[in-house]
């Protein structure tokens, strides 16, 4: 059986993405400890309070967790990427990290790859979390610390660095980190493209994306994930990265206080800039303004 099939049996049994029991317990404990209160849609999407964090985790944790796993799966089981796991160290940069759900999803899918590939030595993960919200950065560490403690036989924490300056303004800070600690193997941009394109002009973002590519290791990749309602933003990002857009249909178990033990299909887009592949200029590039 291929490594990919083993990973899917582990994380997506019967074609439905699901949290492992220890992970579900960890997330539920975190949510239950947070105060419950009605919050605005903006606060739910980009939490700055503990009440907003509860609403965000309850509504979006599983969705964002599974979507980045589905988007990155083919790349992390490839023959190009496996040597990084066998070497024993992976470096992740999460742009607009929020509470760190996307990084957690990637580490979890890599844990399954490690297990499926029968890599016996635990892999160390260096994680750089970028978000202007200090509350979000504190939850990046919260989830990472608990996850690594629970799965320490397969994954171990390395350097955990927080960068509070927003992207792309944090470019000089990322330059120093890459220079001192090494280039990144995985760079994540999950559900961050709409505020980026609304806040910065094309040239600022193009320079920012070019810098991310320069900071990607030879076997690494940049992956962006965005919902289907903001397709134009991921197509603009793919144009700047000179790569293609992929449409996904994903079936997952619902984890919510209001609706649990149910299943739902989600539709989203991803784009991956892979340093191991030749640059492919998509046909829609000429249409991007």
Write the layout of secondary structure elements.
Layout: H1 3-11, H2 21-33, H3 41-45, H4 50-76, H5 82-87, E1 89-95, H6 101-116, E2 123-130, H7 134-150, E3 155-163, H8 171-181, E4 184-190, H9 193-199, H10 202-214, E5 216-227, H11 231-241, E6 245-254, E7 262-274
Major sheet: 7 strands, mixed
Low-confidence stretches: 277-289
Inertia-based shape: globular
Give the total of beta strands: 7
Mean pLDDT: 93
Tell me what portion of residues adopts beta-strand conformation: 15-25%
Distance between the termini: 45 Å
Structural class: alpha/beta
The share of residues in helices is: 40-55%
Plain-language structure description:
By secondary structure, the chain is α/β, with parallel strands linked by helices. 47% of the residues lie in helices and 23% in strands. It is built from 11 helices and 7 strands. The protein has helices at residues 3-11, 21-33, 41-45, 50-76, 82-87, 101-116, 134-150, 171-181, 193-199, 202-214, 231-241; strands spanning 89-95, 123-130, 155-163, 184-190, 216-227, 245-254, 262-274. It has a 7-stranded mixed β-sheet, with helices on both faces. Strand 1 (89-95), helix 6 and strand 2 form a beta-alpha-beta unit.
């Amino acid at each position: 059986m291929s490594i990919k099939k083993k990973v899917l049996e582990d994380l997506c049994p019967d074609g439905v993405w699901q949290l492992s029991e220890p992970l579900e317990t960890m997330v539920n404990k975190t949510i239950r400890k947070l105060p419950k209160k009605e919050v605005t849609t903006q606060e739910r999407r980009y939490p700055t309070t503990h009440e907003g964090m509860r609403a965000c985790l309850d509504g979006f944790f599983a969705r964002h967790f599974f979507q980045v796993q589905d988007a990155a799966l083919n790349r992390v089981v490839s023959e190009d990427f496996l040597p990084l796991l066998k070497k024993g160290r992976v470096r992740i940069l999460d742009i607009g990290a929020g509470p760190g759900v996307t990084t957690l999803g990637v580490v979890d899918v890599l844990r399954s790859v490690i297990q499926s590939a029968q890599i016996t030595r635990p892999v160390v993960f260096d994680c750089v979390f970028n978000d202007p919200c200090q509350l979000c950065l504190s939850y990046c560490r919260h989830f990472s610390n608990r996850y690594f403690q629970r799965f320490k036989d397969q994954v171990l924490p390395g350097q955990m660095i927080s960068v509070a300056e927003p992207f792309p303004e944090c470019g000089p800070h990322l330059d120093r980190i890459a220079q001192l600690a090494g280039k990144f193997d995985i760079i994540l941009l999950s559900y961050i493209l709409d505020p980026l394109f609304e806040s910065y002009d094309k040239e600022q973002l193009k320079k920012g994306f070019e810098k991310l590519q320069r900071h990607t290791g030879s076997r690494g990749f940049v992956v962006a994930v965005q919902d289907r309602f903001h397709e134009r933003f991921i197509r603009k990002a793919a144009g700047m990265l000179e790569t293609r857009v992929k449409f996904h249909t994903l079936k997952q178990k619902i984890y919510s206080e209001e609706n649990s033990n149910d299943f739902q299909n989600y539709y989203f887009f991803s784009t991956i800039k892979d340093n191991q592949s030749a640059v492919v200029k998509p046909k829609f590039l000429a249409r991007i303004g």
